């Protein structure tokens, strides 16, 4: 399956935003508090950088596993992958 191609400007913006993040950094996504648990590209997802968030409460969508690949560890429904 071919990955969707993004413009070089969009890729540069993703890379710039990802470079400002650090694993373990506290974050807030749509009003939900968590911490950055993963930063990087993910096979079988659209090209670009993704951020794995580990929430304090069960407000996420996964356990750190996305498309059958373990990206980070957390309890069920405490993880979420965002851009």
Automatic annotation (TrEMBL):
Transmembrane segments: none annotated. It comes from the Eukaryota. One of its GO terms (biological process) is cytoplasmic microtubule organization. GO terms for molecular function: microtubule plus-end binding. It is found in: Cytoplasm. Signal peptide: none annotated. The keyword Secreted does not apply. This is CAP-Gly domain-containing protein. It comes from Guillardia theta (strain CCMP2712).
